[in-house]
C-alpha cells in the first residue's frame, strides 16, 4: 500500500509549485500576438519586474531558462578573449564560469568551497592584483542552489569598490529572486539574472536580465551581439516582437502577469519575510534531527549564510537516496537530489539531498513536508534527534 494518492508536493529547488491562479491564467486559447490585450499586458510586466529586483534599470525577457540568462548577460557585456572572475560557492557558480568559457571568454575561478560564502577580503586582494584591469566582470551567485549558501552581495560590491576596480558586478539570482532579500540598485549590482521557475512561480521557460546604465554602456563597446541575445531591442522595443526576438511566449506572459499580481498584492517585503520564517522552521526541525544520535547534517552551519529558498542536507550514503525514494513513492513528497556535492553515480552521491522552499509555499506545506521526512526516518530506521516538528512549530508560533 502507498499513501501517495491525492495531491503531490514538489519540494525541490525548482521548478517550484505553480499556483492554481497562475495555471488558470495560462489555460486559455492562443492570443493575438500582433495587437490588443497581449501587447498591453506585456507592457505592464516591465515596471513590476523592475520592482521585484528593486531597480530603476532596464530588464530584458528571454524565452530561455537560467542558463540562457547567464549567456545573455555575458553576451551583452564582455567580448571573446575578455577575462571574467567567477566566484564559486557551489556547482552553479562553476556553471556560469563554464558558460563563459564556452562562448570564448577567459574565466578565472575563485573557489570558496561547498559550505562557505564568498570571502570579500580574498576577492579584494585578487582585484587589487589586477592592476591592468583585465578582469571585465565579477560573476557571483546570490544563492547557489546546489549548496544553499547565500552570499553577501553588498559585501562583494564593497570589495570591488575597495580595490578601486571597474569590473561589472553580475549576480545570479535564479534561486533567490522573490525569495531572499535582493536590492539591485542599493547593493550596486550591474547585471542580475533570474528565471521563471522558482520564486516567480511559473513553469520553466522565461529568463530575465536586469541591467544598469553602466552595463548598458559596456554593451556599446562591443563590436557585435547576436540578434537573439541582444538586450537592446528587448529592453527598448520598437515593435512588440522585439521584446522576445520573435514570437512571444504567450501563455507564460499571462501566467507571469498573475504571478506578479500575487507578489505585488502580498508586497515584496512580506514575500521575503514569509520565506525567512518558513526557512527558519525547516532549519529548526533539521537542527533538532541532527542532535544526539542523529545523522542528518545541514550543509551550511551558520544560519546567516543559509538561503531562504533551499536547504542542502546530508545523511550517510545511501540514506539520502533511500529517504527521497520513500517520501516520493510512499507519501507523494518529492525532495531534491544532491547536486554538485559528489561525483554523479558515486556511492557518496547517495548521501545528499535538498529541500526546496521557494515561491508558493505556506505553513501546511512546510509542516506536511517535515512530517513526511520524519515518517521516512522512522520507516527506514534512520537515526534522528527528537523534537524536530515541535521545534518547527515553535519557530512558526514565535515569529515576530
Describe the secondary structure blueprint for this structure.
Blueprint: E1 9-11, H1 20-26, H2 37-53, E2 58-63, H3 66-75, E3 83-88, H4 91-102, E4 106-111, H5 120-129, E5 135-141, H6 153-162, E6 168-172, E7 191-195, E8 206-211, H7 213-220, H8 231-235, H9 250-266, H10 268-290, E9 297-298, E10 310-314, H11 319-331, E11 333-337, E12 352-356, H12 363-380, H13 388-397
Parallel strand pairs: 1-11, 3-4, 3-5, 5-6, 6-7
Antiparallel strand pairs: 2-8, 7-8, 9-10, 10-12, 11-12
Helix pairs in contact: 1-9, 2-9, 5-6, 10-12, 10-13, 11-12, 12-13
Description:
This protein is α/β, with parallel strands linked by helices. The protein has 2 domains: 21-265, Aspartate Aminotransferase, domain 2, CATH 3.40.640.10; 267-397, Aspartate Aminotransferase, domain 1 (Alpha-Beta Complex). The chain contains 13 helices and 12 strands. The strands form 2 sheets. It has a 7-stranded mixed beta sheet, with helices on both faces. Strand 3, helix 4 and strand 4 form a beta-alpha-beta unit. The longest helix is centred in the C-terminal third of the chain and has 23 residues, at 268-290. The chain starts with 8 loop residues before the first strand and ends with a helix. The mean pLDDT is 97.
